[in-house]
């Protein structure tokens, strides 16, 4: 499963790069959506990998702080992302069960937990009627489209 997750995250990050011009030429919240989508995917990818991957289009400090938060496993953390503050129960990142049997399983567990801990809906909307949160969801949806339509894997 880690191999498949690696392919999905690599492909989505590459797809985000292919969409860069669309977001950079858009409104401020579209630009923020692009950066937040990159942050979200970069943190998940780094939690999966055993080496640090560079942040593509987002703040590397924010990525490092988020990884540290996920690895800390203490209480709760607050993250500013996707149009607001998110309270994240980082105790959920504590590996358990068979995921503690190897470093690879532990990394896979943390990456999947990262991907599952955020609430936002993938939506179809036009730019004119999008909220900032919807714009971020569309940025991630566009990554999926690039991943599956262009054969990136």
**How do the SSEs run, as a string of H and E?**
HHHHEEHH
The separation of the N and C termini measures 14 Å
Number of helices: 6
Question: What would the average pLDDT be, to the nearest integer?
Answer: 79
- What fraction, in percent, of the residue positions are helical? 55-70%
The domain tally reads 1
Which structural class do the helices and strands define?
mainly alpha
Q: What gross morphology would you assign?
A: globular
Strand tally is: 2
* Strand portion: 5-15%
Largest sheet: 2 strands, antiparallel
Extract low-pLDDT stretches: 121-126
The strand order across the widest sheet is 1-2
Radius of gyration: 15 Å
Protein model, in words:
By secondary structure, the protein is mainly α. It has one domain (2-149). It is built from six helices and two strands, in the order ααααββαα. It has helices spanning 2-18, 20-24, 28-48, 60-72, 103-116, 132-149, and strands at residues 76-81, 84-89. α1 crosses α6, α3 (28-48) packs across α4 and α3 packs antiparallel against α5. It starts with a helix and ends with a helix.
What does the secondary structure layout of this molecule look like, with pairings?
Blueprint: H1 2-18, H2 20-24, H3 28-48, H4 60-72, E1 76-81, E2 84-89, H5 103-116, H6 132-149
Antiparallel strand pairs: 1-2
């Amino acid at each position: 499963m880690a191999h498949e997750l690696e392919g999905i995250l690599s492909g989505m990050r590459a797809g985000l790069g292919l969409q860069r011009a669309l977001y950079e030429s858009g409104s401020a919240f579209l630009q923020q959506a692009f950066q937040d989508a990159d942050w979200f995917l970069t943190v998940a990818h780094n939690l999966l990998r055993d080496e640090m991957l560079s942040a593509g289009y987002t703040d590397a400090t924010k990525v490092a702080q988020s990884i540290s938060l996920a690895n800390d496993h203490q209480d709760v953390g607050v993250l500013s992302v996707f149009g607001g503050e998110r309270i994240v129960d980082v105790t959920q990142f504590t590996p358990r069960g068979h995921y503690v049997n190897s470093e690879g399983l532990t990394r896979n567990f943390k990456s999947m937990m990262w991907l599952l801990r955020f609430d936002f809906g993938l939506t179809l909307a036009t730019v004119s009627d999008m909220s900032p949160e919807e714009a971020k969801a569309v940025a991630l949806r566009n990554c999926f489209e690039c991943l599956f339509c262009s054969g990136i894997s």
